[in-house]
């Protein structure tokens, strides 16, 4: 099968998200200039640089009460900071609850039954139960083709790690089992690892 996206795929569901998998989930917490807190998961998310450490996430839809974007992007535009919370398997239901299209004045931490902790280097909340969290300062927002496609880039200026996930000096993902986004309504969880040695090592 071959198709051009502009012509449509002819399938019952769009296969694009199922092709580009698995994808890490950026559970983005942000705070608006008015002090309101927001928490939302984004599956177009990844780390993009080591030095300095940098991450990105993309927002691809809009809310009627946010003038062409979503709460996360609007808050970050106002304050210049955000936090990426890592989603463990244990937090899957809370993450899903926080994805609800709620009005901008509703706190998703409360809606999802999550405890919020303060960040150390930025004025923003974070998920207290997350196995790791990355405090970020906005570097740029890039507008992509499409009605509401924006990519947010941030420099990581603070890192939280759950000490129980440290194993002999390494951050052991099998201790919290990170969630990954697949296509459609599907997710996966990381439980098994294997290693490969690079040819130049």
Automatic annotation (TrEMBL):
Pfam families: Flavin_Reduct
Domain Flavin reductase like: 18-173
Superkingdom field: Bacteria
SMART domains given in the database record: Flavin_Reduct (SM00903)
Gene Ontology MF term list: FMN binding; oxidoreductase activity, acting on the CH-NH group of donors, NAD or NADP as acceptor
Name of the molecule in the record: Protein/domain protein typically associated with flavoprotein oxygenase, DIM6/NTAB family
Upper taxonomic lineage: Bacteria, Pseudomonadati, Pseudomonadota, Alphaproteobacteria, Rhodobacterales
């Amino acid at each position: 099968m071959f198709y051009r996206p502009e012509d449509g795929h002819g399938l019952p569901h769009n296969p694009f998200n199922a092709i580009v998998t698995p994808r890490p989930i950026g559970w983005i917490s942000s705070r608006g200039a008015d002090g309101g807190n927001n928490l939302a998961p984004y599956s177009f998310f990844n780390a993009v640089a080591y030095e300095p450490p940098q991450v990105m996430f993309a927002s691809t839809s809009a809310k009627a009460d946010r003038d062409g974007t979503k709460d996360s992007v609007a808050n970050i535009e106002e304050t210049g900071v955000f936090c990426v919370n890592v989603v463990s398997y244990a937090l899957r239901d809370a993450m899903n609850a926080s994805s609800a299209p709620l009005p901008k004045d509703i706190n998703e931490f409360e809606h999802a039954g999550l405890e919020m902790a303060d960040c150390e280097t930025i004025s923003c909340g974070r998920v207290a139960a997350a196995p790791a969290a990355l405090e970020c300062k906005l570097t740029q927002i890039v507008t992509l083709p499409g009605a509401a496609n924006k990519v947010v880039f941030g420099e990581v200026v603070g890192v939280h790690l759950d000490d129980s996930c440290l194993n002999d000096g390494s951050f052991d993902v099998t201790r919290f089992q990170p969630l990954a986004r697949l296509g459609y309504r599907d997710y996966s969880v990381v439980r098994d690892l294997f290693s490969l040695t690079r040819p130049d090592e």
